[in-house]
DNA sequence: CAGAATCCTTCACGATACTG
DNA sequence: CAGTATCGTGAAGGATTCTG
């Protein structure tokens, strides 16, 4: 299914469509927050809503479905009185933790530098 | 590396607004492709267009401006005959390489597993 | 409790045309 | 060559309402 792009292999990691598509699915607006919660403990739907107060129900549902489809989280329906649904991170989901951590560490470490760059840019506009 | 998967102790990976905002700026649709090119060599505008054939001029301009504002790439105007503009990666930009590589390595390594998960999900729809 | 269904606004992105 | 300017569209996401 991936069209063979001409062999302009740059020796390093190339960004393919599949990469881009995957990152869009698992690194989107709310996924990291959800993953962060589920890495610590299984959560029910409303647990997640409380943990991430700014997410809407619709977006949370969509995020969870997407993550579930990609095998990152698991959904279990507990047939109790008022239905309970528990979300858990999968083993595959746990493997995301390291790359995400590295990313966030980078972001945290370089935030000041980046803010200075923004100020300089916005100020002078070259 | 170390286990003790005590999530609380190990990863203070809280997602803050600033994190989210930054990732949106530097991990957007085209940034990784641009970074990938500029990591290898300085490029002129049309070099980048050729290297990333699917990007439109408008999106490429926007991407470059965004990366420049965040201090990730540098823009130099060479006052030659028809104006030449060279884009280069900055030292700050180079520090992005490792987190991005880790991310792409993860994506590459787990792609098959993820595709199986997608197929299973789309098939059964549980 | 855990969503589904609707409506609505924003805006990212593409397509196209023009310019110093 | 390296953009800017405009227009148009689809999709993401918020707000709100309803339900098994």
Automatic annotation (TrEMBL), chains A, B:
Signal peptide: none
One Pfam family linked to the record: HxlR
SUPFAM superfamilies, alphabetized: Winged helix' DNA-binding domain
Species of the source: Streptomyces griseorubens
Protein name listed in UniProt: MarR family transcriptional regulator
Keywords of this entry: DNA-binding, Transcription, Transcription regulation
Residue ranges constituting the HTH hxlR-type domain according to the UniProt record: 17-115
């Amino acid at each position: 299914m991936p069209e063979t792009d001409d062999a302009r292999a740059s020796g390093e990691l190339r960004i393919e469509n599949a990469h881009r598509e995957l990152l869009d699915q698992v690194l989107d607006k709310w996924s990291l927050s959800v993953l962060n919660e589920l890495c610590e403990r299984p959560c029910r739907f409303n647990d997640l809503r409380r943990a991430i107060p700014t997410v809407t129900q619709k977006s949370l549902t969509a995020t969870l479905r997407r993550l579930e489809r990609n095998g990152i989280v698991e959904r279990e329906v507990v047939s109790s009185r008022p239905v309970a649904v528990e979300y858990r991170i999968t083993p595959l989901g746990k493997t995301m933790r390291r790359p995400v951590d590295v990313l966030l560490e980078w972001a945290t470490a370089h935030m000041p530098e980046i803010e200075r760059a923004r100020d300089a840019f916005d100020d002078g506009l070259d």
